[in-house]
Fold this protein.
Amino acid sequence: MAAEMVAPAWMHEQITAEQYDSWSEERCAGIEIVDGMVVVSPGPSKRHNRLARILANALEDAAGPDWNADTVFDVRLQDVPLTNRRPDVVVYRAETIDVTPTRPEHVLLVAEVVSPGSETTDRVVKVDQYAKAGIAFYWRIEQAATGVPLVYTYVLDPATKTYREGDVFTGVVKVAAPFPVRVELGQL
């Protein structure tokens, strides 16, 4: 007889910002909240995590003292209904490091590394959510079969709250200051 996994009740009920803020870090790990509902994502692969870390390190080096680049923490896109996303890389104002929750006005850029199972969310859903929240730049990193990542860049049009497509790069990220004016990608 196989044991059945039963999801806790809180995974089937709409969550408020106040409820979410009271939860432990362990309970929030590996989930996002979309329109108040819990969304569970499978754990990322080592390649996924490595790409995110390399990108965050390059962005951190290029951003200067006014900006931080980190991986895997929540960005509160809206309070009602609650929408928290956990981008793979976030570039945010250094002075807001201790401000919780991190809000779109603190964020300059979010980047998502696309993995099997996250294609539609990263290519369509999150693009729209980040744009509507007013985040100036969105990068999508595709893990190509060749092993050389493709980086698709998007720039927010503040008037329409939509992204326009920017450049597409391949290779290892080498970001040059002043960030984000110039991005140079070399080969792996």
Observations:
- Residues 46-63 form the longest helix (18 residues).
- The two ends are 49 Å apart (CA to CA).
